[in-house]
Predict the structure.
Amino acid sequence: MLKTLILLLFGLTMVALGEVCLRKGMREIGEFPVFQAGELIRALSKAVTNKTVLLGVLLHLIFFICWLIVLSRMELSLALPLTSFSYVLGVFFSRYLLHEEVSSMRWAGVIFVVIGVILITRS
């Protein structure tokens, strides 16, 4: 069980870092024009050729592989709630890698997520 939890934590770290890469890549590309088909296609073509976005997709793929392994070894009712820990990692990475401002209310939410993860793992 410990190896499975370590694998899950590794996967969750990969997906959170993947989100950081996607965000950084999308900053480089700019906003997607939602209601203009031609502009959306141009923006998508920029996204699929952006190295940072592609790295984010690769990190998501690594998470997916880890997730498949975890699901083969752990009950979904335990594994799925544990994925919320990626939100905690995401906030930390956003703050310290992307230098985003994180309000005290968000940090309070992080504390609640951590408490929830602890309660789930103790069951």
